[in-house]
Amino acid sequence: MGMVGQRWTLIFGGGLVFGILVFPGSAALGRDTEEQLLQRIQSEPNPVKKAKDEIKLAKLKFAQLRDAYSQGQVEAGVKLLSAYVDVTKTAWKLLQDSGRQAAKQPEGFRELEIALREDIRLLKDLERTVSYFDRAPLANAAQELEQMRVEVLHALFPGDIPLPDKGSPAKTVTSPGSPAEAR
Q1: Residue 132 has what pLDDT?
Q2: How many Cβ atoms are within 10 Å of 2's Cβ, its own excluded?
Q3: Contact by Cβ (8 Å): 95, 151
Q4: Second label for 21, Cα 20 to 30 Å away, from 51, 57, 95, 145?
Q5: What are the CA-CA distances from residue 161 to residues 61, 157, 158 (Å)?
Q6: What SS3 state is found at 115?
Q7: What are the pLDDT digits (tens) for 133-173?
Q8: Which residue has the higher pLDDT, 125 or 169?
């Protein structure tokens, strides 16, 4: 790199540092606060956009519960876990009540399924780091979210999707006239 390239690197780097120091809020523009999300959820008439904001709020709650557990605040973590599950259920209920067919209009349903898949994995990871005696709420939440994820998948892909009952092995649900029914 020549002398000119080094000078531009210094100028750009200096400008970047100056911008962060002068406009500290701009570095977090993509991050919504809980208050902003709650405000937007209350004022949003579109159920899909509202559900997407609920998913963002759930992500925020998940980060808070993970922090609580990592700091050894199990009781606070359990309360945040409950709030997280409630927000996720609200997002699913909004999508169900929207009247949209997930298979034809997957917006919102797809984002919820992805968020559930990621969060279930992270919950199971968190469960492994917590004391054995404090794992039950995490395991129960992961199981409940997995059931919700299966329901979302069934809405997105109706037909031959295994729908496990609580406490029983998975069974396949087929739609009438499907190739699986002919077998």
Answers
A1: 93
A2: 6
A3: no
A4: 57
A5: 30, 7, 7
A6: helix
A7: 999 999 999 999 999 999 999 999 988 656 556 555 444 44
A8: 125
Q: Which two tokens stand for residue 130?
A: 């917590």
Residue 37 contacts residue 53 (beta carbons within 8 Å): yes
Reported as a single tens digit per residue, the pLDDT across 46-84 is 999 999 999 999 999 999 999 999 999 999 999 999 999
Amino acid sitting at position 47: P
| Residue 83 burial class via C-beta count within 10 angstroms: exposed 0-12, middle 13-18, buried 19 and up | middle
Handedness of CA 10, 13, 17, 23 (dihedral sign): positive
Q: Which residues contact 100 (CB under 8 A, 6 or more apart)?
A: 47, 48, 108, 109
Domain ranges of the chain: 30-159
Average pLDDT over residues 10-33: 51
**pLDDT at position 160, please?**
63
Task: Give, as one character, the DSSP assignment of residue 142.
Answer: H
> Tokens 């968190």 identify what position?
126
Give the C-alpha separation, 68 to 136, whole Å: 16
Cα–Cα distance for residue pair 13/26, rounded to 1 Å: 16
